[in-house]
Structure of GerAB/ArcD/ProY family transporter:
Amino acid sequence: MNRIRLSNGMFMAMIVNMIYAKAIGVTQGTISRLIGQDMWIATLLGTLQGLLIIYVLHWAMRRLPGRRITDLPSLGDALLGRWFGHLTALILVGFFLAGFGPIMITFVYHLKDYFLPEVPLAIFIVSGLAVGAIGCYYGLEVMGRLALLGILFIFLLNLLIVIGSIDEFDILNMLPVLEHGLPNALFASVHFDADWALAAMMAALVLPHAQDGLVRGGRFGAAGIAAGGVAIMIWSILEPAVLSAEVSSQYTVSCMKLARNAHVGTFLQRYEMIMIALYSVPVLFEIMFTLYAVSACSTRLFHLKSDKAAILPSAIALGAFGYWIVEDHFRAIRFLENIWPWIALPVAAGLPLLMLLLRLLLQKRTERAAPYPEEG
């Protein structure tokens, strides 16, 4: 079997892409409804919490003498046996299945609400999963290269929105600071925490495949979370300063309102068309990796010979759930704001903490030689 190798740049790019698309619009709109113009503070607090968890994940997954760790379920195998590895894989299947709902909300509502209102919902679901299945079929290295392209698109998107919005930037719209208090800002950051939760669980599956991932993965994972946080904070500052928090809070996809408000010179008045083109790679990467994660964990659960055999069943399951969520706008918002954060955080924070605790408690057992060669 060929061993998968991701460069550190690919690993960091995958983290940024996994956070970005939903966080700049759907998440910021949710946060603005809770704490108004302090949405940038909630984003900053969420980024700091993400940095902590990615380091905990790295410490839990760092190299075990005599053991070959390929993902979080394989760490479960090493700690408590195969049953625990299977349980971990089952939890991750449920996590990414639930996480596909917010991803589809982001993907569909950007396109359907603003550009293609007459197109049947099934077309968006099938087309997104078809692209995701192609990337999933070709594997992590292809997804890593796509993520590098996504970083370029994210940079261009941020650069253009800054240029297009700077003339209407009014810092008075961001005052007073902490109007609702720090505890409320911390509570609102839970919604951004749910975004980096997807990135953290993505890292749980790909960290050992990154260059020196089990040795220095925490540093590069933290760099990815920090870079994503900075890219997203640009939007969380511009949206209240340009639109006002009150206007941002009225939109499910608040970034599209900001994009429509941006003007770059004389010939780029319809900036939202450019935004959709540039934002497409990050959101398609999210779909692609979610499908990969579900198929990879399902392969372990059902003892399949190849991840590729699980792609089609996983795509059907994800498509059915995504359609059910997005079909009803009120159901989608209720799931996004009231259910998904309380699924994402216990898994993304709880699993790494549990693995680290078990590793400390079972240190002697995990350091015994095993029938697996050590990662080189």
Q: What stands out?
A: Residues 8-366 form a domain with the Amino acid/polyamine transporter I fold (CATH 1.20.1740.10). Confidence is low (pLDDT under 50) at residues 369-376. The longest helix spans residues 82-114. The CA atoms of residues 11 and 175 lie 37 Å apart.
